[in-house]
Every structure is written in C-alpha cells, then in structure tokens.
Amino acid sequence: MRIEPRDNFGRRLPRFEVDERARPARVQSASGSPDIFLRWDESIDDAGALRRCVLCSCNDLYVRKNMPRLTPFVVVLAFSGSTVALLGYATNPLIYGVLATVLLVDILTLVLATRQLVCYGCGAVYTALLIARYHHRWERTVAERVVRGEVDFPTALIASAPTETEQRTA
Q1: Domain boundaries, the chain
Q2: Across-strand partners of 27?
Q3: CA–CA separation, 36 vs 157, rounded Å?
Q4: Whole-number percent of the chain with pLDDT over 90
Q5: What average pLDDT does this structure show over 114-118?
C-alpha cells in the first residue's frame, strides 16, 4: 500500500510504501522529519481491506478515482471535436478518424483510472490496496461531521503555519 500523508494544513508530505501484511509500527521519513508511527489496531478488516486510517485512526474514509493528468486535455479535445461535428465541418474522413481516436482515448482514460482511499480526518491518500465495498464516495455530511471533531494528527505530521508565499501559491 502507498500512503501519501498530509500535514495539519493539508500540504502534501513525501509518500511512502508500506506492506499491510507486515504491519510495521513506524515508518522512517526521507525528509529528515520525525518517524511516523502507524496505528494498525482494528485498521484492517478480515478480508484484508483498510477499515480506518492508520495515521490518525479516523473511521471515515471515502473512495475517489485518480484521473490521469491527460484527462483535462482529452475532455477539451472531445468537446471541440463534438462542436466541429455539430457545426457541420466534420465532412472529411480524416476528422472522423480523429474524433474516433479522441473518443477511444477518453474511454480508456475513464476505464484505466485507479481508485484511491482518502481519509476525511487527516486527508491521507491510500493507493495500491484492496478497497472494501462499504467505502463510498465523498459525502458532505460525513465531511462536516469529521471537521467538527478533533483530528488526532501524529506529531510527525504537525507542521508550522504556512508562510505568506506558501499561502499565495496554494
């Protein structure tokens, strides 16, 4: 399983790989920050799927699709191609071939998108793992309930306040 942790301000931290079968108690970070201690108690269900976040022990996780970075360009190409076809400029067989190719790339992008598990509490992103059926897509009510509660960030994930330049770029 690959874990991409976030600090208490939502900034990405270096990701790391963990073998969920071995269940290591701590992970050494490459950036020189303190080690991250993982909480495996009741985090894995009987089928081997992640039930709760191993960083903050939050019970609420949601599933999202990780679309490739190519997706926005394909969407723009598909939209412009359909506009050309609707306006009647698609009489050339070459344009039909281009439109079919863009449609095929768009369908492949949707089919090959990987699924990720994301923690509502700390924002950690989990990939390359078994995702159970009881995890659903993002829900506003769950997110609001979790935000009202106190998130228990590990000390290695607590960062100082972002500087002015970091706030402007975010």
Answers
A1: 1-65+120-170, 71-111
A2: 36
A3: 8
A4: 21
A5: 93
